[in-house]
């Protein structure tokens, strides 16, 4: 089976997010005075071939822990969708 | 015998010659260690210098930690050998799990290239053994990702165990607790954002980095004596 994984990487709660803070400070300059809680993260997409949904998810999870995210300061969420076989 | 200082070179490292030249001027023998090498060729101390290891893709130091030489560096560190990461090298050592915390983008998203005052907070580390605790050194910083972060538990542990090696006198980048450098639990692995090798000759505007490199050479010789 073939799956597309979308990994969203964000700062762990309690870890300062300098990009989010800078964007949040710059939005009022454009007239958006009603914005708060801006967080900037990363989005990674990849396609993985695996026997089933659980195997694909387990593998992407391992990739996140080992390389894609830094568990010391980042959290990640994996969204998996099955690609139509061709 | 002159201490052999291994200097790790990743694709994208760019401070290795500065470190080598400073080490040589102080009587040490620099040994360049290409990142694909599986061993340290008899080094008595290891420096992971600054630059942009593997282009700093994904995160600074994220790819570099998988270079073969890093396994050898980790074994050397576990055995108690002195290891120092400078700037990008500090980032690599945190990603490799040899030092706690992480370094992220500077607060305000400003690239910093200036000389700053750094206070030596402890002389119990291989780079500060000959320095006086409480002394202030003028050292250059040159980074975009020097903002040290860690969780509250780690921060307290670093404080309680006297593992904050350097603090900025005026925090330039948003680092937690003004931290400019930390050491490992065993104290033999140190990471710092400032560049001592760029403050090792009067011609460079400051010689305040010399005491740090001298300390490293002294700890390397001790290691050599033991080995």
Write a concise synopsis of the structure shown.
The complex is a heterodimer of chains A (86) and B (227). Chain A is of the alpha+beta class and 86 residues long.
Order of helices and strands of chain A: EHEHE
User: Low-confidence stretches of chain B at least 5 residues in length (pLDDT < 50)?
Assistant: none
CATH architecture of chain A: 2-Layer Sandwich
**What's the CATH first level of chain B?**
Alpha Beta
- Please tally the β strands of chain A and state the result: 3
Mean pLDDT metric of chain A: 95
The CATH C-level class name of chain A:
Alpha Beta
Average pLDDT value of chain B?
A: 96
Describe the structure.
- Chain A has 86 residues and is an alpha+beta fold.
- Chain A has helices at 18-26, 53-68, and strands at residues 2-11, 42-49, 74-82.
- The termini of chain A are close together.
- The model of chain A has no long low-confidence stretch (mean pLDDT 95).
- Chain B has one domain (4-226): Rossmann fold (3-Layer(aba) Sandwich), CATH 3.40.50.
- Helix content of chain B is 24%, strand content 25%.
- Chain B has five helices and eleven strands.
- In chain B, the strands form two sheets. Chain B has a nine-stranded mixed sheet with strand order 2-1-3-4-11-10-9-6-7, sandwiched between helices. A two-stranded antiparallel sheet of chain B has the order 5-8.
- In chain B, helix 1 links the parallel strand 1 (4-9) and strand 2.
